[in-house]
Amino acid sequence: MSVKLTTRQVGDVSVIDVAGRITLGEGSSALRDCMRDLISKGHKKILLNLSEVSYIDSSGIGELVSGFTTVTNQGGQLKLLGLTKRVQDLLQITKLYTVFDVHEEEAHAIRSFV
Amino acid sequence: MALNTGGHARSVTRVYDSTLQSVDDAERLALEVAAQTGFREDDVHRIGMAVRECMVNAVAHGNRYSAHKKVEFSLSTDGGRLQIRIVDQGAGFDVEALPDPLAEENLLRHSGRGIFLVKSFMDEFLVRRLDPAGTEVVLVKNLDAPT
Questions:
Q1: What are the φ and ψ backbone dihedral angles of B35, each rounded to 5 degrees?
Q2: Does the distance separating the beta carbons of A59 and B52 come in below 8 Å?
Q3: A20, A55, A64, B76: which could form a disulfide with B11 (CB 3.0–4.6 Å)?
Q4: Residue of A23, A63, A65 with shortest CB distance to B108
């Protein structure tokens, strides 16, 4: 399995549960398509649950950044939930940890959207 | 696959097609050899990721997925030193000209982090343009290097 994406709605927040690998090819393009689909339908509060993501490469990081900038430019918010230590390390090395609003608990993350 | 073992030294050479399957295969091989060499789990992961990023560069940016171009991948261990060499047949790139992904103006760029991650994860990273075409990348990780 490359990546599995499941979308659910919690109030006005769209949660994307991501599981597997987000790497160049099927993984990163599936995530890109999923975020674009939500944005095109007017969803502007998106929470990416990465707790089941086992691996992310620079292409996957690029998709997170692109999703973030696209949603932000449309007046929305994209936040991250449940980073594994390896994903957290990658975001720290690339200085992106402070760019994203990162949460450990879903309920807390949902409440943080304005 | 050519496999030579002599004492503690080991070398593996493969020639890959310019496909994403080759990226997966090279990464898997590097993970296997790194683990057998005795690297800690985190370093095995970093070595695998460095190989993935360099193979993506070779396959996608260098050879542009051409069915006519190959990627030469070799991996050798000698004691606690793991060396990986990746050669493509593309036009080459100037590593010094790559923008700094940590610069404020580049933080939100979609791409440009691959080589930076490789440099972060490996002890040595060398890039050389080949004549008349192609790029050679050499990665080294030492077992006893401070982390």
A1: -65, -40
A2: no
A3: B76
A4: A65
Low-confidence ranges of chain A (pLDDT < 50): none
Rounded to two decimals, what is the model's pTM? 0.91
Question: Which is it for strands A3-10 and A13-22: parallel, antiparallel or unpaired?
Answer: antiparallel
Flag whether residue B120 sits within 8 Å of chain A, measured between CB atoms.
yes
CA distance to partner chain B, nearest, from residue A56 (Å): 9
Query: Rounded to whole angstroms, how far apart are CA atoms A75 and A44?
Result: 7
Judged by a CB distance cut-off of 8 A, whether residue B119 touches chain A is no
Residue A5 touches partner B, C-beta closer than 8 Å: no
Residues in chain B, overall count: 147
Q: How far apart are CA B139 and CA B58, in angstroms?
A: 14
Q: pLDDT, tens digit, for every residue of B22-61?
A: 999 999 999 999 999 999 999 999 999 999 999 999 999 9
Q: What's the CATH code of the domain at A9?
A: 3.30.750.24
* Best A58, A59, A70, A96 residue to mutate vs chain B (most B CBs within 10 Å): A58
- Residue B135 sits at φ, ψ, to 5 deg, of -130, 135
Q: In total, how many domains does chain A have? A: 1
Of A30, A100, A102, nearest to A71 by C-alpha is A100
User: Which class is B2-142 in CATH?
Assistant: alpha beta
- CB of B34 within 8 A of CB of B43? yes
Q: Do B54 and B137 form a contact (C-beta atoms < 8 A)?
A: yes
Domain that holds residue A51: 3-112
A-B contacts at Cβ under 8 angstroms: 46
